[in-house]
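Let's sit down with a protein and look at its sequence and fold side by side. We need material for that, and I hope you will provide a protein of your own picking. Once you have written the record down, we can walk along the chain together.

***
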Amino acid sequence: MITFSDISSARQAIADKIHFTPVFSSEILGTNIGARLFLKAELFQKTGSFKPRGVLNRLRFLTADERARGLITVSAGNHAAALAWGARQVGVPCTVVMPAAASPSKAVAAQSYGATVVLHGNMNEAFAKMEEIRREQNLTLIHPFDDPMIVAGQGTVGLEIVEQVPDVTKVVVGIGGGGLISGIALAVKTLRPQVKVYGVEPLGASAMRQSWDRGEAVRLDSVNTVADGLAPPMAGQLTYPMTRKYVDDIITLTDDDII
């Protein structure tokens, strides 16, 4: 597992390369749930999501050999765009594999940043295709969530939340593969141990909830959810134990609830 110092180091390393995103209050939504509600606006981050935080932190550890070989990843879209953008910053070629039904705008975004985009099958099949290409071309995998330095980079969101809302009592985080919530939960629990951290996961892609219930990281045979960015078919070997240690509970929602 990573430590709080890994997140602090990540923040120092990437601070001048990313946006310090705002926190907005939402009076209407807050009134509906009977609480003060704040939204951490990572949609205003570089490439439109939190993903560049982890990408930039991971890329700073690339060896000369890994740079020369080029990079590859698999993603529904946000990590693909972030890695394509980050790879361009460091001058390294990048291939991203996305499911065939991925959002066209996300595929175009990754391509516009200079990545070679491969569209293939469903999410499980996309992971398999990525591994096939990685082996054939001897590329360096930048995992979308199950990597210590990716998690440490995402954890910088948690540092900012505590600074921006010092009296926060509960933090709610969407779960895909678990990289974001693992980093946030470690950061928040270190600085504010009394704060509750909750994960939210689509019922049709509930790999982390099922992993909790079974007591081990599981891989799903299929996923079915409108929330394509939260639909990896597995929980990470790193992110599963981190969520068990730092997250208070995971709630699943149907697609109707999400919509």
Observations:
- The radius of gyration is 17 Å.
- The CA atoms of residues 81 and 110 lie 4 Å apart.
- Strands lie at 23-25, 38-40, 71-74, 94-98, 116-119, 140-141, 170-174, 196-202, 249-253.
- The chain is about 45% helix and 15% strand.
